[in-house]
Design brief:
The structure is a homotrimer of 364-residue chains. Helices cover 77% and strands 1% of the residues of chain A. A two-stranded antiparallel ribbon of chain A has the order 1-2. In chain A, helix 3 runs antiparallel to helix 9, helix 6 packs parallel to helix 11 and helix 6 packs antiparallel against helix 14. The longest helix of chain A is centred in the middle third of the chain and has 33 residues. In chain A, 59% of the residues are buried.
Chain lengths: 364, 364, 364
């Protein structure tokens, strides 16, 4: 795999790969150094996520357009999914749900906001395809609302029970996955022209040969899974040591770590005045979490989890996700942006971070 | 009335009229067969609603434009109103309020969603007059918000009392009816050109002579009222027999039964690529429920009801109506639709149905 | 200051200035006539606010554009700020917070609604710069959301504490002021062309000489501060005498009194078909309250108040502010208005007034 090594030499982010063996060694030698293990596993996941993202795109570019699109759409949040699966197996459902809600918020507020901000520093006013942005923001809003209905209803209604929430969550997960399948039919087949401008294919990286790409995809997924286990085991104690609540870790840290690779693409797109790419990554990634990652986790919990997981989110998370997706709808509505719009989106994100950081820890 | 009989021969939906005498006979002979009476009364109301809708349009087309518009606007939800009045007289306020909230949700999610879906199966992308859709969605949003304010405030504020809610509901009902009157002045007189494209007049049915139409209007209204009484009496026990909560019956069943006639027009409009008609029916009908039907029911309850009815909705209904109208605003904003947008609206509707079906029954 | 006296002769509103000495005399002679003192202080603040507004504009027009814009932006809500500071010093935090929330609601519903209504009575359909309106509505939505996050989170989450809310409010106040500073950089420096049409400079009043203007600014601010003290002292008892809740006084009365001068400009702009001016005043003023007045009051409370003030609003106020700003976003989205849109905005405002008037009084 000479292509892999060339890639590593050229991309300073990938030098962090050195932390992958360090994590495993430390986990073996000092299994109780939770804060250290937490930091090392974060540092190891970031470059692995970048490799995973590049490998997915390489495989996608070698296959037919439809299969490639399918791959990109399904594996785009693979890192997120693998980390959440590790937390699911460990029965840490609070962390799993926080990371799902956090990934939606991070994509719509932080990725979109920072793209507008960095793009706006270089370009006075940036325009993007508002028809496509509106369609994507509409999908995201509906997907998030669907995801949040059980929580909203049982928050306002004291008569709901655990059995009710669990049945509703299961039915909901099935509906969301059906909608996701139909959404791929829509965006990859019947109405692909609407999503054309958000094509990832035109990145300046050269795709790898299919053999290296497939091998990297398989190998790196296994590595992410292994590092994720260390991460999930250490995160609770590490959070306590750093004074962070589990909600903060799930919402902010996991979402930022899991999405680091995609963020780099979104920001560099914005700097090059290709805001369509950035908006597409931010909104598409958030929709995918709501329509695919979240229901898959619910269904998988029936097989691998210690008990079935429901889609009952912490009420504060419901408020944050609703505000974030509503904001994304209103903000992308005009099809233009300037740096201050980015500042405001980032400000709301910062306020969420501050709230979660200050919030007294909870059991639920 | 030869026109009435010709109509019945040509329209298979009207063959269901045979169930009208069957309902009355069954109610006489087997007054305790609640599940059967419920089914029969639903089957009888659907064709009566279709007749009522056609009779209204026939009378409207024979009178001056202004009077005709007024008639269409006032009697467009006559079936809904008559069913709700029967429930009101029986003191079933939970059912009345559920049917009001359910009619708004059904129109904005189901009628709009199914129109987008059926239209989108035949046409790649459909465009409609987005200026008019935005005005209508804006009216609907404001009307719904007004309707929900007492519930929202007393949900978040524990200090409210029954007396407070009742006084507020009465004042609100008066304000809503004044707004409705001004809204008709607006849409029929000062700014009628904004609403022109949603004209019902161009349906392919031929209008009846004014005599037949007026007689049908009067006679069918009486029949709907009589059948509604059977429906309202049987619905509680029938719901229990079918495992449905009263909330589900009011929200979903009554709204679908009462609006069946208009839905047919909306869907056939969408198939003919006349989405303006469909959007006009869906949003206009929902606005009319909020601005006219709901306040009329409150005011009438002071005269005919066992006690004054307030506008205090079940909190879950508040969430659903807010989500539905906000969604309608965001979705109609672009003036274009494709089949997947319909799928998403229907998915949110299905999730609401599922939630209401699973929800443990309540007294309130 | 001959210009001041000429102004007073020409502007009947300013004849109310006679109430300024009357207030002080009455406060001295009959310190317990609370209802009378309340009425007199309201009558005295209105003309003082008008003078303050004219003086600010005169100073602004004599300085460089950047300094002038800064002055207009900072002192535009000076009356509001001075009244709130008086209430703050008296420890009346409920009144302070109600007036902040009320000023946002009053600007977005009443000022916008009445502008649409009065403009629409004279002009069939009015168009305005929707790009600029959308940017401003977006800023307002984000600013309001930021302001409300502590309240929303602690409303839905029972685990929050006073210490949590206070720390969060302080951090939030700092963030909001930073955002406000960046917003001025944006609207006055880097992207001033977006806000050009909402320029106040083209009013038909002639600016005063700089000397008179500065003296008026200083003198009138002192007078407003003194009258505000009488107002704040008398308002609680007067409210009880008139059957008004403190929430109603803060939300409705203080906001209407403090904003009377700007409202006159907004309404006359609408009549002259310069709706950009009206929309700019309404949305700009509301944003300024959220981004500048509210955080300044929090920070000042650490120095002058009896105890630190937090940004924990009454839940009903949160609902009202969210509805108001969301409505403003949806309504200004189309860039056109007609009289009925104004009616609907005013109706929602009236419903809020009715709710607050009927609501049983609270301590919190």
């Amino acid at each position: 795999m000479p292509s892999l090594f060339r890639e590593i030499r050229n991309n300073p982010l990938l030098w962090l790969l050195v932390f992958v063996p360090v994590v495993f060694a430390t986990a073996k030698l000092k299994p109780d150094a939770h804060a250290l293990l937490f930091l090392l596993s974060v540092l190891a996941i970031v470059p692995l996520a970048a490799l995973l993202s590049h490998a997915t795109e390489s495989v996608a570019s070698k296959t037919s357009d439809a299969v490639g699109g399918l791959l990109n759409a399904t594996l785009g949040n693979l890192t997120e999914l693998v980390i959440s699966l590790a937390a699911l197996r460990a029965g840490q459902y609070v962390l799993v749900k926080a990371s799902v809600a956090g990934a939606i918020v991070t994509n719509t507020l932080f990725v979109l906001g920072a793209s507008f901000f960095f793009g706006g520093l270089k370009h006075h006013v940036q325009e993007y395809n508002r028809v496509s942005a509106r369609v994507q923001a509409g999908l995201l809003f509906l997907a998030s609302v669907a995801l949040l209905i059980p929580s909203a209803i049982s928050h306002v209604d004291s008569k709901t029970s655990v059995a009710f929430t669990q049945k509703l969550s299961f039915g909901l997960a099935v509906l969301l996955i059906v909608a996701y399948g139909l959404g791929m039919l829509f965006s990859l087949k019947t109405h692909r022209e609407l999503f054309a401008s958000a094509d990832h294919g035109e990145t300046n990286e050269t795709p790898w040969p299919i053999g290296s790409a497939l091998a990297t995809l398989a190998g790196v997924t296994v590595l992410v899974a292994l590092v994720s286990e260390v991460f999930v085991e250490s995160v609770q104690q590490a959070a306590a040591a750093f004074g962070m609540t589990p909600a903060f870790v799930g919402f902010i840290v996991v979402a930022l770590v899991g999405g680091a690779a995609e963020m780099t693409s979104a920001f560099s797109g914005a700097r090059k005045d290709r805001l369509d790419l950035s908006v597409g990554i931010a909104l598409g990634s958030a929709s995918q979490i709501a329509l695919f990652v979240a229901p898959v986790l619910v269904l998988v919990s029936y097989v691998f989890g210690p008990s079935p997981m429901d889609l009952q989110f912490w009420p504060g998370a419901v408020v944050m996700v609703l505000i974030a997706t509503l904001t994304a709808s209103l903000v992308t509505n005009s099809g233009r942006s300037a740096w201050f719009l980015g500042v405001l989106l980032l400000m709301v994100y910062l306020i969420f971070c501050m709230t979660l950081y200050l919030l007294p820890p909870r059991e639920q």
